[in-house]
Amino acid sequence: MSLPHCPQCNSEYTYEDGANYVCPECAHEWPQQAAEAVEEQRVWKDANGNVLQDGDSVTVIKDLKIKGSSSVVKVGTKVKNIRLIEGDHDIDCKIDGIGAMQLKSEFVKKA
């Protein structure tokens, strides 16, 4: 098992001391749980399993009713420059003719 590099000086010579990691070069100490949380970053995937990133373009794969409106986002609608966020609806975007809204990543595919 390799130990993480120091988050302050990026030294590779860290060591464990109880429940903490310690850097001998800059004397920075940090809890092991914090290092594990950094490694477990969220990955957003589309309906086909492709990894999504901020700024990607996606295509809607299903007609989506807009809550509180009679409008519908039609299948095949291309959405450019998405922004990924935490939550149930994990894509923040602007759709031409409709405006700003949030989508679920399970209803889009990467364009």
From TrEMBL:
What InterPro entries does the entry give? Answer: YjdM, YjdM_C, YjdM_N
What range(s) does the Protein YjdM C-terminal domain occupy? Answer: 45-111
- What Gene3D superfamilies is this protein classified in? 2.20.25.10, SH3 Domains (2.30.30.40)
Please report the stretch or stretches of sequence annotated as the Protein YjdM N-terminal domain: 2-31
Cleavable signal peptide = none
What the entry lists under PANTHER family is as follows: PROTEIN YJDM, PROTEIN YJDM-RELATED
Family to which this protein belongs: Belongs to the YjdM family.
Q: What is this protein called in UniProt?
A: Alkylphosphonate utilization protein
Which organism encodes this protein?
Answer: Dechloromonas hankyongensis
Q: What is the lineage of its organism?
A: Bacteria, Pseudomonadati, Pseudomonadota, Betaproteobacteria, Rhodocyclales
